[in-house]
Amino acid sequence: MKRAAVLIEPILFVVMFQFAFRWPGLLWGMAEALSALLLPVLLARAAWRGLKWWAIWVSFFFGVMLLTSWMPQTISSKGGIPGWLSLVAGVLLWAYDSLPPVLAVVLAKCVWERVPGQRGIAAAAFVAALVMVACESWLLHIYPWTWATPLATPPFLGRSAAILGTEGLSAIVWLHGIAAGCLWASGAKRNAIIATTSAIGLLLVLSGAWSLLPRGREMALDVAIVQPNYPVNTRIPNQMADMWHRSDAVLARGGLPKPDRPTLLLWPESSVTDGNYLLPAAWISEIAKSRNVAWLFGADGRTDDGLSLNIVRGEATGQKPFVQAKVVPMPFGERMPGPDWIRVPLENIAGFSSWDAGELSAESSFHLPYQKDGFIIVHPLICSESLLPQRTRAGLKLAGGDLLTEHTNDGWFEDSIAAGLHASLARLRALETGLPLVRATMSGLSGLVMEDGQWRHFSGAMEEGAWSFELKWRPINAPARTMWPFYSLLLILVCGFCIFVMPRAAKKRSA
Question: Residue 455: what are its φ and ψ, rounded to 5°?
Fold first, then answer.
């Protein structure tokens, strides 16, 4: 029976992991949310019943591999890295990114074995949650997926992210999971059910409290999105002309611009790659001025030192050109990770040239003229930056924002799960900042996520199209837009662990 469990339980974990992160999920997203809540419960119970750490690691290795199976091909095609080397990088990535839940369960088990009773269960839950939050924020993640993602799929649960933040949702998953799993393993099934019910109840209460958060003034504008579905890693002749041909068509269909509100035209990352768009160019400003639209587009830039930058450029009548370079280039895909003494040798081995990183400042948001003397402040995120809560918070703190835009080249993902996973992760940025997020993608799932978590996409993967719509919203003053919920969470987890462990340590010293 034990041998069968060694095989059956890891397979169950892989299946549940796929259910949790297969976006957008079943039953209005509840299947995804419940899978994420129950998987740590089963992990904890299996570990305390004797399942080895390596079996858990293997199950998560295959789970992460299925989730990011597209990664080696992407690394190879984007970086010009040999196929065999990109496959090795993929295997290392899968092994590395599958470590956090293993580490959380092993440390939690170690604590529970040394601290008796209910205190041990509580201490184990706190240490597991602390490990997962630390790993998702700083360690043991190359592709930044998070356990908060499934909880945000049903908007009536995900709105709690405005108060707790992404990290808070992940902490609840693991606090509840380890506690309920330990209670179940120790025979207290009723208490385990109470723990699960309490976790869901807390999320519902916080999601309800979302409606009490203060709102800003109502804003309105028309948005146009162009999704060209250009092939990746390919120079397209006359890109600018082709993109404007598509844009003029969608503007004409929508009767844009309209006299009573501004129009924001969005192009995806790498929509124009035929020049150095970091340089001043009056002719670009004239294009937007002649059509009376505000325009944000993804392009390439090069510094005076010859370093490449991934940028978003913005143009609006009466405003100076806006340029923001990607602050956090994608590890391996755009920039070799690590300090120079590691990065440079790896670049030489792989024949890969890293892209330079941009910086955030008070000018990192695009000001769109609105009404008489006001502005709508648009904060753009470039591709994988939309997966990083701390990057978004830092940008909004420095430059402000009433609206988020995401410009991504998702053609690398083709029609794999990655396109949906990227969209579901980006959805958290709207929920935790209290701002709508408009996605302009190269090849699929362009669309809109409202500040309340409601979303709509205009296309599937590997399609082209262009759409326009009216957007009205009131920015929400969400606590999770700041770093305070994150710092408070760390303090609570550390203090909670210490409170439940310290009596045991004091008893040992007195003995």
Answer: -140, 160
Residue 444: closest CA among 127, 228, 168 = 228
| Rounded-to-integer distance, Cα 218 and Cα 377, Å | 13
Backbone angles phi, psi at 209, to 5 degrees: -65, -20
Closest CA to 411 of 373, 383, 442: 442
Helix runs in 309-468, H state only: 340-350, 389-399, 417-433
Residue 87 confidence (pLDDT): 85
Strands 465-473 and 308-315, bridge-based pairing:
unpaired
Domains and CATH numbers, the chain: 2-212+484-510 (no CATH), 219-328+357-477 (3.60.110.10)
Distance CA 60, CA 12 (A): 11
Tokens standing for 462? 């590997």
CA dihedral 80, 65, 102, 333 (to 10 degrees): 20
Structure tokens at 502: 């310290």
Closest CA to 438 of 316, 322, 312: 312
Instruction: Report phi then psi at 251, rounded to 5.
Output: -65, -40
**Tens-place pLDDT, residues 221-264:** 999 999 999 987 777 888 999 999 999 999 999 999 999 899 99
Q: Which amino acid is at 190?
A: R
Angle at CA of residue 154, ends 190 and 417, nearest 5°: 110
The answer to whether residues 258 and 468 touch, using CB atoms and an 8 Å cutoff, is no
Residue 469 has phi, psi (to 5 degrees) of -160, 160
The burial of 437, by beta-carbon neighbours within 10 Å (0-12 exposed, 13-18 middle, 19 or more buried), is given as buried
Look at residues 425, 417, 442, 158 and name the one whose alpha carbon lies nearest to residue 273: 442
CB of 366 closer than 8 Å to CB of 404 = no
Torsion of CA 283, 284, 290, 295, to 10 degrees: -170
Helix axes 30-48, 189-209, angle to 10 degrees: 140
Phi first, then psi: give them for residue 221, nearest 5 degrees.
-160, 165
Going across the sheet that includes 294-302, the strands are 322-325, 308-315, 294-302, 263-266, 219-227, 465-473
List CB contacts of 356: < 8 A, sequence separation 6 or more. 303, 307, 308, 309, 325, 329
User: What global pTM score does this model have?
Assistant: 0.92
Alpha carbon distance, N-terminus to C-terminus of the chain: 42
pLDDT band at 204 (very low <50, low <70, confident <90, very high): very high
